[in-house]
């Protein structure tokens, strides 16, 4: 908490990593997927990002929980600090998946036409990077391509409240 009781807001992402869609290889998506039985959302996010994007990292804060009433599932969106990038990974070898780093604003534009809910994840990330009332804390990060990115994991079940 900042003085005065306001929570600090940390801007930690300059770029996000998107992967090509397995169904539509010319479209970019936020990496993520389903949870295995008995798997926690954070563990699923780390596993999915390793399989789909070929990166390892340290799981950061939960960015939000998004719910799809039609599909009856909940998506947990996390920030992941990338610590290792593999040359070849499961989905690159098996299905030719590609990955690319985008500035947050550019990623939102790329996602808005075919994956608007993924763009919504990044809008929330971008809002967390906006200065508000002098309470923002913006740490200095190296300006490289391995800073951070967002991933998600989905869990089936009856939706509750969107956070």
Looking at this protein, list some descriptive labels:
163 residues; alpha/beta; Nucleoside Triphosphate Pyrophosphohydrolase; four-stranded mixed β-sheet; three-stranded antiparallel β-sheet; 4 helices; 25% helix; cytoplasm; EC 3.6.1.52; diphosphoinositol-polyphosphate diphosphatase activity
Would you give an account of this structure?
By secondary structure, the protein is of the alpha/beta class. The chain has one domain: Nucleoside Triphosphate Pyrophosphohydrolase, CATH 3.90.79.10. 25% of the residues lie in helices and 34% in strands. It contains four helices and nine strands. It has helices spanning 41-53, 90-95, 104-112, 116-127; strands spanning 9-10, 15-20, 28-29, 32-34, 55-68, 73-85, 99-103, 136-137, 148-156. The strands form three sheets. It has a four-stranded mixed sheet with strand order 4-9-6-5, with helices on both faces. A three-stranded antiparallel sheet has the order 3-2-7. A two-stranded parallel ribbon has the order 1-8. The protein is globular. Residues 1-12, 130-147 and 158-163 have low confidence and may be disordered.
């Amino acid at each position: 908490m900042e003085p005065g009781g306001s929570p600090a807001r940390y801007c930690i992402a300059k770029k996000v990593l998107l992967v090509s869609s397995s169904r539509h290889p010319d479209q970019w998506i936020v990496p993520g997927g389903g949870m295995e039985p008995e798997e926690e959302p954070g563990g699923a996010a780390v596993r999915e990002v390793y399989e789909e994007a070929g990166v390892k990292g340290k799981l950061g804060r939960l960015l939000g929980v998004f719910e799809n009433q039609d599909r009856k599932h909940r998506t947990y969106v996390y920030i992941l600090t990338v610590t290792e990038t593999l040359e070849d990974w499961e989905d690159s070898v098996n299905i030719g998946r590609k990955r690319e780093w985008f500035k947050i604003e550019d990623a939102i534009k790329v996602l808005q036409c075919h994956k608007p809910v993924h763009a919504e994840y990044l809008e929330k990330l971008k809002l967390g990077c906006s200065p508000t009332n002098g309470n923002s804390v913006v740490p200095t990060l190296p300006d490289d391509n391995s800073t951070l990115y967002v991933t998600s994991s989905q869990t089936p079940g009856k939706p509750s409240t969107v956070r």
